[in-house]
Amino acid sequence: MNRPLLEITGLSKHFGGLRAVDGVSFDIRRGEILGLLGPNGAGKTVCFNLISGVYKPTAGQISFDGQRTDGLAPHVIAGLGIGRTFQIVKPFAHLTVLENVLAARGIAHYRHLPKIWSSWKTSAERREALSLLERVGLSELADRLAGLLPLGNLRRLEIARALAVARTLLLLDESFSGLRHEEITQIEALIRSIRADGLTVLLIEHNMRVAMGLCDRLIVLDHGRKLAEGRPAEVRASEAVIEAYLGRKGSAHAA
Amino acid sequence: MSGYLITLGTIIAINAIVACGLNVIVGFAGQISLGHAAFFGIGAYTAALLATQAGLSFWAALPCVLGMSAFIGLLLGVPSLRVREDFLAITTIGINFIVEAIFNNFEFFGGALGIGGIPRVGMFGLKLRGTEFLVLCLFFLVVVMVVCWWLTRCWAGLACFALREEETAAASVGISPVRFKLLAFVLGTCMAGLGGALYAHFMRFIAASDFAFPLSVSLLSMVVVGGMGTLWGPILGACIIGVLPEVFRPLVDYRILFYTMLLLLMIRFQPGGLLGENSAARRVLAKMRPGGRS
User: Exposed/middle/buried for B6, CB within 10 Å: 0-12, 13-18, 19+?
Assistant: First the structure.
């Protein structure tokens, strides 16, 4: 039971000569909110894409609950109960908000050939999907086309969709970026309540203040390598992190 | 009803069946196909060969026709997993030309002479002709529409819609792109095969040129004009594309001009098709049915 939920060992992803992720190792512990920080191009989203199966690693291992998942296809990894959002939102634009969530709830059916022929237009399914929308505060927009929503609502929709999939682990890729202050506060509360329900959360965040306040632990990446790891206070005090974000003390060129 | 109208109606019904199949591939699953006539032809040739060489009745041959269409749909659906959009369009055009060339050049398929002497469809001891055959085609059109309607309500259909909208996001919620694209291809080609079998037994003579690339283009036009991804769009499109040449018969020299203008007007004013999202027809329907969202 004390085994970490996700173990990443020596993970690398190279695109030709570019080492986007280079020998990164870390664990995600059950029930924590772990933040992945770093400047632009540090390899945070690539890390996400490796965990969720969009990319296959050049080297290294990913184990989820003791099972190797590196090299598995994205839909198989989703089937393990790992849900994710996207930094550049990817709604099913011509489906309604409710249908977006229903499409994700279909995860219980997509793998079983007889079940894919059963109807999703049932009141029970609608209720379940609506309760997810309620949770992210979108239930009033359930019948709108997803493509017409503003960014803030799309970020919530992505969380609802990922929640329909995530039984154990939720990956949030910059769910706060481009949002107003009140919206950020609401989503912070939402993430806390998700963790209170027993889910583990890994999130990428640019906004230092938000990440420091929300996360139990932080991992800082820079140029594809792990720069620091620890509690927010420890990371904030780390020389290496300050250097990566603000440049070397006394050096002429600011980063 | 005059023979002329019955013939026109039968052709439109058959085209509507085939267009519904194309709509499953293009409109539901978002995989462009410009080679649908090939699958129509594969159904027609399978039915014709089974009827003339093996002596099977239309009904006995039907499962084989559907099976063959499904199998070849599966086989040729594989390219759609590797290539997307423009490249998929080109690949499917290629498939159309290859299939047509095979029909045209192999003695087994009757070569350039085609296959003649295909018997009429028999049912309850009588041979279906004229109105009876039209009713048979309409019956199958209803069956195909029921399948399409169910597809809009079942998880398989929702998975296809999600794939059409955003493949990466669809995979992230557990939808296997391979499985559901192939599923759409197989369903679509089965419907084309069914249409092909009806066509063979209706014309009673088929040749490779009946299933050439221009037919693929007009099938796609039916789907686009009617409204991609809608239930009734392909039917409306098949009616319009089927009736227009008859209406414009006196203007035979200007026909292409009219088609072109029609297509450009569609693209400019109703890009989602006549029954598509936000189309004029749909807005009128919504007004007539207060509170209803289709």
Answer: middle
Give CA separation, B208 vs A146, B67, B213, in Å. Answer: 45, 21, 11
Q: Which residues of B touch A110 (CB under 8 A)?
A: 155, 159, 174-176, 179-180
Residue at A239: amino acid letter? E
Is A83 in CB contact (< 8 Å) with chain B? yes
> Does A86 contact B at CB distance below 8 Å?
yes
Q: Are B73 and B189 in contact (CB under 8 A)?
A: yes
Could you name the CATH architecture of A6-246? 3-Layer(aba) Sandwich (3.40)
| ipTM metric | 0.90
What token pair was written down for B64?
Answer: 């084989």
Q: How big is the CA angle at A229 (ends A189 and A19), to the nearest 5 degrees?
A: 105
Buried b (16+ CB within 10 A) or exposed e, B204-232: eebbbebbbeebbebbbbbbbbbbbbbbb
Helix (H) or strand (E) segment spanning residue A59: strand A59-64
10-residue block means of pLDDT along chain B (294 residues)? 87 96 93 91 93 87 93 84 80 90 86 82 78 92 96 95 94 94 94 95 91 90 88 92 82 74 78 76 75 45
Q: Write out the two tokens for A235.
A: 């990371």
B158 to chain A: closest CA residue: A103
Q: Are A91 and A158 in contact (CB under 8 A)?
A: yes
Domain boundaries defined on chain A = 6-246
